Amino acid sequence: MEVIDVDKKKIDAVKEESAKTLTSVLYALYALSFLSGFSGVVAIIINIIKKADVEGTFLASHFRWQIRTFLFSVLWFLLGMACFLMAAGVKGLPLFVAGVLLVVANTVWFIYRVAKGWLYLKDNRPMYRRQDRHGLHRDNPEQADHHRLRR
């Protein structure tokens, strides 16, 4: 009976390592999307297809992080482009400046999100920390005890 349990653990470890490698490849595809937007589209499709495979692991938080990063980045890019187009039609400097600011801020934000996610993945850390109803992190018992003592 122990042999089966050991084999199952080995299989689970191999599956998790494979999923971690896939997550790293997805971060690379998102980083490459600066050169070719097509790689970002490929990455989001893979994220959506493989999301169920990582449920229940710390990698699920990375998939959520990647999907949100892509979707919000596309949203802010489209808003920036809309400002550019309206500025071209109206010849309005404020709209042009707003468009430039949106695209630049979006680019910086996207780079930050990809870098942070990749670094957290390297350290085997989830992207989000759970909080209790008081806004305290569950993984810090000293902080929770201190909060209880203040009451």
Q: What would you report as the Rg, rounded to the nearest angstrom?
A: 21 Å
Q: Biggest sheet, in brief?
A: none
Mean pLDDT score: 83
Distance between the termini: 50 Å
The total number of structural domains is 1
CA-based shape: elongated
Give the number of DSSP strands: 0
* Overall helicity: over 70%
H-E string: HHHHH
Class by alpha and beta content: mainly alpha
Report the uncertain regions: 143-151
Bin the strand percentage.
under 5%
Distinct helical segment count: 5
Task: Characterize the structure shown.
This protein is mainly alpha-helical. It has one domain. It is 77% helix and 0% strand. The chain has helices at residues 2-32, 37-50, 59-90, 93-122, 141-150. Helix 2 packs antiparallel against helix 3 (59-90) and helix 3 (59-90) runs antiparallel to helix 4 (93-122). The longest helix has 32 residues, at 59-90. The chain is elongated, with a radius of gyration of 21 Å.
